[in-house]
Design goal:
The chain has about 290 residues and is of the alpha/beta class. The protein has eight helices and seven strands, in the order βαβαβαβαβαβαααβ. Helix 1 runs parallel beside helix 2, helix 1 crosses helix 8 and helix 3 runs parallel beside helix 4. About 50% of the residues are buried. This is Mycofactocin-coupled SDR family oxidoreductase.
C-alpha cells in the first residue's frame, strides 16, 4: 500500500472498464483522482458507452478506497474541457503527478464509415494528445505519463484486398500505432526534465468494449448474430497463452508500477500486457 501516496492522477475514460480499474487501483495505493469521461454515446459506434451513473460509481469506489476524487463529464476531443478538469483538480488537490490517457473507442463496423473513421481518430489519437498536452505545463520532475495503446496497433492489419470496407476498424489500429510513436518522441524530449512517458498495449480485455456486437462480429464473421459463448472460443486466437482475454486489473497493476517511483528510470517503453499476443506476429528482434 502507498506506492503512489500523496500523488494526484488525471485519468480519462474513467467511468468504466480499464479506466475505472486504474482509478480504483491508484486510489488504493494512495493517489487522489481527477476522473473524466464522455458519459454519452457516439452515434457512429455500434455499442453504448459509459453513463453518468458509471462515472459516479467510479467516484464512489475511489472514496471507498480512502481517497479524494473530482469528476468531470468531458469529451477528450475538446482540449478546453480537459484543461478545465485538470485545473480544477490541481486547485482542489494541489498538483498533478500522473496522467493516464485511457479513453478510447472501437470504430469497427461503424456507420457512416467516414464518421466512424473521424470519431475513432479524434478520440483515440487526438484525445490522447489533448489529455497529455493540457497536463504537460503542470508536470514536475518525477511525473509519469501513461497512454493506453493496443496490440492491434502493433499488428499488420491493412485491408489490402478490400480497402475502404471498414475505415473505423482500421482507424482503431492506426490511432494506437500513431499515439505510440507520439509517446516515444514525448519520452525522448521530456526525459531530460525527468518526466517519464510510456505506452501499455493490452490484448483482448474483459470490458464492455470487447463484449459488444461489433467486436463479436469481428471475431466471428461466419455468424450473423454471435453470442458471447460462440465468440469466446475465438478470442484465444489473439494470444499465445490459451486465454480469451486479460482482466482490467491486469493492466492496472502495470499502471501502478509506471505511476510509482519503482519505475523512476523506465521511459519510452511500449509495454505489452498481451498474454504473448505480439509473439504471434513477430520474430525476435532487438
Amino acid at each position: 500500500m502507498g506506492r503512489v501516496s500523496g500523488k494526484v492522477a488525471f485519468i480519462t475514460g474513467a467511468a468504466r472498464g480499464q479506466g475505472r480499474s486504474h482509478a480504483v487501483r491508484l486510489a488504493e495505493e494512495g493517489a487522489d483522482i481527477i476522473a473524466v469521461d464522455l458519459c454519452r454515446d457516439v452515434e457512429s459506434l455500434g455499442y453504448s458507452l459509459a453513463t453518468p451513473d458509471d462515472l459516479a460509481e467510479t467516484a464512489r469506489l475511489v472514496r471507498k478506497a480512502g481517497q479524494q476524487v473530482l469528476t468531470r463529464q468531458a469529451d477528450v476531443r475538446d482540449a478546453a474541457a480537459l484543461e478545465e478538469a485538470v485545473l480544477a483538480g490541481i486547485a482542489e488537490f494541489g498538483g498533478l503527478d500522473i496522467v493516464v490517457a485511457q479513453a478510447g473507442i472501437a470504430g469497427m463496423a461503424g456507420e457512416p464509415k467516414r464518421q466512424a473513421w473521424c470519431d475513432t481518430i479524434s478520440t483515440n489519437l487526438v484525445g490522447t494528445i489533448n489529455a497529455i498536452q493540457v497536463s504537460l505545463p503542470h508536470l514536475q520532475e518525477g511525473a509519469s505519463i501513461i497512454a493506453t495503446g493496443s496490440t492491434a496497433g502493433l499488428m499488420n492489419t491493412k485491408q489490402l484486398d478490400n480497402p475502404g470496407t471498414d475505415p473505423g476498424g482500421i482507424a482503431y489500429a492506426l490511432s494506437k500505432r500513431m499515439l505510440s510513436q507520439y509517446v516515444h518522441e514525448l519520452a525522448a524530449q521530456f526525459g531530460p526534465s525527468k518526466i517519464r512517458a510510456n505506452v501499455i498495449h493490452p490484448t483482448n480485455c474483459n470490458t464492455p468494449m470487447l463484449h459488444s456486437e461489433p467486436m463479436y462480429k469481428a471475431f466471428r464473421p461466419d455468424l450473423e448474430n454471435p453470442t458471447r459463448e460462440e465468440v469466446e472460443v475465438a478470442f484465444p486466437v489473439q494470444q499465445v497463452m490459451p486465454i480469451p482475454y486479460v482482466e482490467p486489473e491486469d493492466i492496472s497493476e502495470v499502471v501502478v508500477f509506471l505511476a510509482s517511483d519503482e519505475s523512476r528510470y523506465v521511459t519510452g517503453m511500449q509495454m505489452r500486457v498481451d498474454a504473448g499476443g505480439y509473439l504471434r506476429w513477430y520474430d525476435f528482434h532487438l
